Amino acid sequence: LERLYTSGYQMIVTPMRLNGNFHLHYYPRLGKIMRSVRPEIVHIDEEPYNLATFHAMWLANKHKAKALFFTWQNLYRDYPPPFRYMELYNYRHASAALAGNRDAAEVLKRKGYTGPISIIPQFGFDTNIYQRTEPRKPRAPGDPFTLGFIGRLKDNKGLDLLIEALAELPEYCRVVFIGNGPMKEQLAQQATRLNVAQRVIFKGGLPTYEIPGEMQQLDALVLPSVTRPNWIEQFGRVLPEAMACETPVIGSSSGEIPHVIGDAGLVFQEGNVQELTARIHQLLDDPQLYTQLATKGRQRVLDNFTQEQIARQTYKVYQQMLS
Asked: What is the pTM of this model?
C-alpha cells in the first residue's frame, strides 16, 4: 500500500518468507503481530489454497478471531496435496469469503465452501483521478473516431479482432494500443495485411499517471478478451477506469466483463468480429446513445466501484461476521 493512503489505521511492515513464490510464501512474524494486536477480524487478502492463507487462518482460529479470505480464481482447478488440504481447512474455518467476480463465487461453491460469499472487487477506483477534466468536443462528420485498448498486448485479449473490425469500419476510424506485449509485431503485420496500418497506432507502455488523460482522448475503449482453457477475464479494470472518464466502453462476453459494464456500455459475443463491428457502428451512428453511455458509465462507477463503495460493502461483511 502507498503510505499516502494510511491515515486512519496502522500499517505494520513485516518480512515475507519465500517472497515470489505464489503458493508457498507466508509471514513468519504474523503470530507475534496477532498476539500484540489481538484482532477480532482477520481479513486475509490471499487465495484459499495458499500457505499464507492457511497460516493466517490457523492463527486467527488460535486467537479466536473471525477470519475471511479473498479469491479471484474463476476457473475450477483441482490442487494436489498439501494445497487441497489447506484449501479445505480454510473453507471450514472462514466466517466469510469475498469473491472478485461471480464465476469465482461459483467455483468456491463447487469446491465445497458452504459459508457466506460476497462478490466485491478487491480494490475500488479513485474517481477524482479517473474523471473527465474538460467537456468532450462535439464530433463533426468525418472527424477521427479513436478506438483504444490499454493493457498488455497478449493473445487472450482478442486484439486481432479489433484490427479485423477496423478493416470493416469507415476510414475515419482508427485504433490506438497503449501497452507492450508479445502480440505487437503480429498486430502490426495483420494491420499491414488488411491495409489499415496507417490507422493503427502503438503508443507503448505509459506511466500510470498518464492513463486518465489518454482515456479521455479515446472515443471508445474496447476490451475484446477471449476465454482460453486456462484463463477467463476476472474483471477488466480498464473498463471502470474508462467509464469514470466518461469514455464509452465495448467489452466481450468473457468472464466478468458483462457484469462490470451492466447497462452502461455495449457487450458483444467474444470472438465474434461481426458483433464487435456492429457495436462500434452503434456508437458511430447514434450520438444520443453515445452521450447516454458516457453519462451512465461514470454513474455506474460512482454507484458500484469507487473506493468508498468497496469499503462500505466490505465493512458490511465485517458487521455480519461479528453479529
From this structure: 0.92
Average pLDDT, the chain: 96
**Residue type for 19, please?**
N
CATH number of the structural domain 145-304: 3.40.50.2000
Query: What sign for the dihedral angle of Cα 13, 19, 23, 27?
Result: negative
29 pLDDT higher than 90: yes
> Before 207, cis peptide (omega within 30)?
no
How would residue 2 be classed by pLDDT, with cut points 50, 70 and 90? low
263: cell is: 447497462
Extents of the domains making up the chain: 3-123+306-322, 145-304
Whether residue 79 contacts residue 91, with contact meaning beta carbons closer than 8 Å, is answered with no
> Quick one: CATH architecture of 3-123+306-322?
3-Layer(aba) Sandwich (3.40)
